[in-house]
Amino acid sequence: MNELNHSRRGLLKQAGLGVGLAATAPLSLGSAATHAAGRSKTKQLIETDVLVVGGGPAGIGAALGAARAGSKTLLIESCGFFGGVASWSLGMPINQMRPQRKARSVVHELLIKKLLDYGDQAVHIGEHQLYCHVDYLKVAILDALEEAECKYLVFIQA
C-alpha cells in the first residue's frame, strides 16, 4: 500500500502534475485511464490553449490576459460566479487597485472602467482602493470575459 505524501511540497508537486496534464489534453468527462486506453465513450467538451482553474482575482487576470493575447482560453470556477472573496461578501474595499493613484495593469483598468460605466451605485474609487457593489463586480467580470472571447464554465469541480 502506497503512503500518501501529505506535505505542502508533495501537494504542490501533485497539483503541478495535474495542471500540466489538464493543460495538454482536451477537456472531457470520464477517467484518464479510460480515455488513454482509447475506450472512452465520453464527449470532448472544449479544446483550449490555456486552462485557468479558479475565478478569483488571479484567475480572472490570467484568463483575461491569455484571451486578450489571442489564446483560446477556458476559465473554470467551482462557484456560480467569478470574483473570489470580493464577490462573496456584502461589499468590501478591493485594495491596491490603483496604488499611488496610478494604473496597476490593463486588466485592472478594464474592470474599473466597466464599473464606472455602470454608474455611481456600482463603484466608488478611494485613494488606492475600490468600494464596489458585488453584483456589479460580477457583471463587470462576465462582460470582460465575454468581450475578450474567453470561454468559461461555472459549478465545475476541478
Describe the structure.
The chain is an alpha/beta fold and 158 residues long. Helices cover 41% and strands 16% of the residues. It has helices spanning 8-24, 32-36, 57-68, 85-88, 106-118, 134-147, and strands at residues 27-28, 44-46, 50-53, 73-77, 93-94, 123-125, 130-132, 151-154. The strands form three sheets. A three-stranded parallel β-sheet has the order 3-4-8. Helix 5 packs across helix 6. The protein starts with 7 loop residues before the first helix and ends with a strand. The model is unreliable at 1-9, 11-25 and 28-35 (pLDDT under 50).
Major sheet description? 3 strands, parallel
**Integer-rounded radius of gyration:** 18 Å
Mean pLDDT, as a whole number? 79
Number of beta-strand segments: 8
Strand fraction band?
Answer: 15-25%
Net shape: elongated
**End-to-end C-alpha gap:** 26 Å
The level of helicity is 40-55%
Strands ordered across the widest β-sheet = 3-4-8
Low-pLDDT parts are 1-9, 11-25, 28-35
* Structural class determined from secondary elements: alpha/beta
